[in-house]
Design goal:
Largest sheet: none
Number of helices: 5
Shape: globular
Number of strands: 0
Order of helices and strands: HHHHH
Distance between the termini: 30 Å
Helix content: 55-70%
Strand content: under 5%
């Protein structure tokens, strides 16, 4: 990030995504509390996009991503926060 001359905010963003890149990989089997904690984070949409791309690039199953998409569609944001 430093070599790319990213701002501190951009660096923090990238570091959080890398540190949490697999947090949603087992979303269907996670407790509601753990899932909600992850989905309440402001970078959750970027995290979900990262996981989708990572799984597709590896030729792996994207059921976890589809599960989270469906969960977000049926769960009010006020219930997640």
């Amino acid at each position: 990030c430093r070599r790319l001359r990213l701002s501190n905010d951009e660096t923090d963003h990238v570091q959080w995504l890398v540190a949490h890149q697999d947090d949603l990989a087992d979303a269907p089997s996670q407790s509601q509390a753990r899932l909600k904690r992850t989905l309440a984070h402001p970078l959750r949409d970027d995290l979900l996009r990262l996981l989708r791309v990572k799984l597709l690039a590896a030729g792996e199953d994207i059921r976890a991503v589809m599960f989270v998409d469906e969960y977000l569609a049926r769960t009010p944001q006020s219930e997640i926060d």
